[in-house]
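Posting this for the archive.
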Amino acid sequence: MRIPIAALIIFGIIVFLITGFWPTVVSHTFGQTTWGLYSREFFENVLVEAHGAAIDLFVVGVVMYWFEKRRAEADTIKSHMNALADLRFYRGADASYRLLGEMKRLIELGVSSFQLPEAALNNVEISDLTLKGSNLRAANFANTTLTRVTVENCECDAAIFAGSRFQHVTLRNVKIRRAKFQDARLNGCDFSNCELQRADFTNADLRSAIFRGVDCQGVTFKNADLRSANFIGAKNLSPEAFKDARNNKHVKL
């Protein structure tokens, strides 16, 4: 693609230079000499046509370059998606880092939805990431730190977040039913738009967490820190849910 573009640029420069210095070119070449149909007027007409050809080639070149760029981008995305699929069940020591690396490359290419049930994303730091419409059922995020991460319209049922840490994590319409949050640090996290029935928050730090309007059926808060947590409008929430919490001071009900 580079050679045709270079040829087009050189052709255009030559045409425009000859046109700009036409009087000089004429005086140093054939002047008023004619040979058959070849005359000054003939070459002037040739230059006019050359301008049209240069402009046409430029437009065609831009269109071809755009299509070529889109094709190359599609091939790159397909390559990374294949690599991601190959890593889905990989359980080597570097599995989480390789999987996260492929995800970030795809996100840079505009991809935000992934099919990664049971994926291994544990023991890593995930930051500045946006996931939309992804399937992360039973994915393993154990001991992972999530910073400035947005999770939207994703399925994370039975996902493992044991020992994880959330910092500025945004959850919108996320299904985290039966998810495991044991020993997780989730202070200030907003679960108000999530489905978290039967989620396990044993030993979790939930200070100032928001559960406004959430269905808390079967949710476990054993030995959890619920200080200043907001449960206003929460459904299926019984007093027994707080009985085993290690701290339930200033809980909003």
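The mean pLDDT is 82. The longest strand covers residues 125-132.
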